[in-house]
Amino acid sequence: MFAPQLLSYDEARTIAKRRVPRMVFEYIDGTAGTGYGESLNLAAIARIRLQQRVLVDVAQRDLSVAVFEQKCLVPFGVSPMAMCNLAAPNTDRWLAKLSAKYQVPVGVSTIASSTLEQYIEWSDGFAWFQLYFSGD
Predict the structure, then answer these.
(1) Mean pLDDT by 10-residue block, N- to C-terminus, for the chain (136 residues)?
(2) Measured between alpha carbons, how far is 27 from 32 in angstroms, rounded to an integer?
(3) Alpha helices in 20-135 (DSSP H)
(4) How far apart are CA 77 and CA 108, in angstroms?
């Protein structure tokens, strides 16, 4: 299957909306409550400006960061999502393997499609558990 090179959040969202069943897309794309948190996040991202640098040797680039004394190759991780296998079979495994490749944490939802033990194996130990505590 041809995988297009995505250049923006909007492009990814448009492609997903065409390819994923509507109910699944709305579940993944949905926000909590009124969507206020999402709007704040999008506004914060829109305010980020990259500093231009010219005549700088970029042959040796390093985006790595340390997170809890663990080196990650890029400065972000994979957020937890409940039942992510609704999007496509083995999505959870694919995301965990990508986290291992880039040495970044993959969040494991309390109601994930697979077990924490599987995530730990697939991600080479980069799995972080997200606990939703209910009760007293």
Answers:
(1) 71 90 87 89 92 88 89 90 87 94 93 93 93 79
(2) 11
(3) 22-29, 36-47, 91-102, 116-122
(4) 11
Q: How crowded is residue 112: how many other Cβ atoms within 10 Å of its Cβ?
A: 23
Residue with tokens 């994930």, as numbered in its chain: 112
Q: What is the DSSP letter of 78?
A: B
pTM tops 0.85: no
- The token pair at 35 is 């969507």
| Tokens read off for 122 | 């697939």
Please report the pLDDT score of residue 8 as a whole number: 85
Long-range CB pairs of 63-70, under 8 A, 24+ apart, other chains included: 67/105, 70/103, 70/126
